[in-house]
Amino acid sequence: MEAFYSYLNSLVNKNKLQYSRYSNIKWINPYSAFEYQNQRNKFLENIGHFVLFKGTKPYLNHISEGCNLCGQGLWSCLFITGKCNANCFYCPTAQDKDDVPVSQGLSFPTPESYSEYVNHFGFKGVSFSGGEPLLFSERVLDYLQELRKSCAPDIYAWMYTNGILSNQETFAKLAELNLNEIRFDIGATGYTLENVSKAKGIIKNVSIEIPAVPEEKEVIKTLLPNMIKAGVTNLNLHQLRLTEYNAPKLLKRDYTFIPAEKPIVLESELAALEIIDYAKSQKLDIGINYCSFFFKNRFQAAGFKKQVSGVFSANENAITQKGYIREQNQREINYYSVKLDDIENSSPNSSELALIHKAYAFNKTLIKKISTNPEITCLIQTEPEVIPENDEIFDIWNLEYIEYGLRDY
Known about the structure:
By secondary structure, the chain is α/β, with parallel strands linked by helices. The protein folds into two domains: 20-302, Aldolase class I (TIM Barrel, Alpha-Beta Barrel); 312-400, no CATH class. It has helices at 2-18, 30-47, 65-71, 111-120, 137-150, 168-176, 194-197, 217-229, 247-250, 266-281, 293-311, 374-381, 391-400, and strands at residues 51-52, 57-60, 75-79, 82-83, 96-97, 102-103, 106-107, 125-129, 156-161, 181-184, 205-211, 232-238, 257-259, 263-265, 287-291, 325-328, 332-342, 351-354, 359-371. Strands 1-2-15-12-11-10-9-8-3 form a nine-stranded mixed sheet, sandwiched between helices. A four-stranded antiparallel sheet has the order 16-17-19-18. The radius of gyration is 22 Å and the shape is globular. The model has no long low-confidence stretch (mean pLDDT 96).
């Protein structure tokens, strides 16, 4: 595991350097890690076999179809605006500008350009996010209408909202265009269910998606029966993370931070698992899942890469779990990364993908070349049960496979 530990150590150094100007960050230490690990293990043991996506998503009862598609890499999230009307302490970005709708850094100025993109890259699920989509509800309706007109009828579509502008008239219009699900962040409105109940009986699937705020876990437990009465079928809890934008607010709270690929809040994970464990003990009829940072970082990131790489590779079996293209012969193995961009951001080395409503620039870049040998061949053909110790083999493993489970503290 030496190569893996070296990688983890590099994350520690990167995180502490990036946030070095904040002297009050409480990074996890070896003395407390063992205790926290035992707490998490007890919750996971109680939850039992209810885990998905290589052990990164513990859940209870069921998860949304949208969450399933996300884990499979078949989801596209369109940020319909960058402007929001709430002021949540945990928000990772400023969200103070109304921009052209974007997804994965690509701009989609027209509904036609986005629907064409969804079709071309084979996405099966689409969500509308922000900012706050209800600030520009007519824009959401335009993009959803074109999606229903031009894409497969079984595309699963949902929308995120803080609920501040909830009204049944807008929800009815969204329902007419077969919005499959709506997800409320009740953390933005003091954990009230008043706005959530307005969607009951109109939108087919009503969910709540909030960060697991440690100080609010008892409030959330108490609310669970009322969520069910309000028509909520799923509660999605995700993990708080530290960003340059929310640091001034987040660091006022006594959280313990884990230096993963991005700094994440340890107590947020424990709160999410405790809520799931509680709901199970009470036999509550609601689906709850924990959307861990490791699920987001591994599956969401790889999902988009896989969909894009699949368009530029003739062999679907040559797409790794991480979304890289593998090309090999008897002598060597080459790994490529494909980057898609707006055509106006093209570089001299870019190629062009011209569709009817939008053109894209793309670069297929060689990121790793290695001579073929039996150990590498075996690694590619059979995913190892343990992370390789050899540095070179670890590098290939890290291009091929998504790490299993929630990383130890």
